[in-house]
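Below is the record:
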Amino acid sequence: MAAQDNSDIEALIALMAKLPGLGPRSARRAVLHLIRKRALVLTPLADAIGRVAETARECLNCGNVGTSDICALCADETRANGELCVVEDVADLWAMERAGVFKGRYHVLGGTLSALDAVGPEDLRIPRLVDRVATEGVNEVILALNATIDGQTTAHYIADQLEGRVKLTSLAQGVPIGGELDYLDDGTISAALRARKEI
């Protein structure tokens, strides 16, 4: 009897294992579940992934992920209230939106400054941030960066770039040192946003 060719399944497991929070064992269990629930889960999931692969794009204005060149948050005129919340990545933006307390607009940097990883200001969306502050009627920039060394270094750099141009605030109590926004609950994010302080 010929050996079974499971190369497609093994390739799927290997790809799933690259996802955050999944290792090889978890990926294997997930793939087995998908195969068992082929009609109910696997086929709709494959269809959805195909659609997202075709339509997902980065917002040209803020860096959010959506299905059009300008995301729904940037297109919403009611959010043009002069407040601009700067976050490290899209997961942080989505965490802020989940909390439902911020009604302004966002700016996604795409990372933080890091000497170890050779990430400098030109590798982030900091020049675009400076441009937005100058052209969009921004009167407050809220630095909602992760409370890590790289996050704080980035916040200080941005503060230097925007000094004297706009009111600068940062998230205050509720965000622990070493904490990341994506892992905080809605109440903690809400408290931190309300208690922000000027830099």
Notes: The chain has two domains: 6-55, 71-170. Helices lie at 7-16, 24-36, 38-55, 72-75, 90-99, 126-135, 149-162, 186-194.
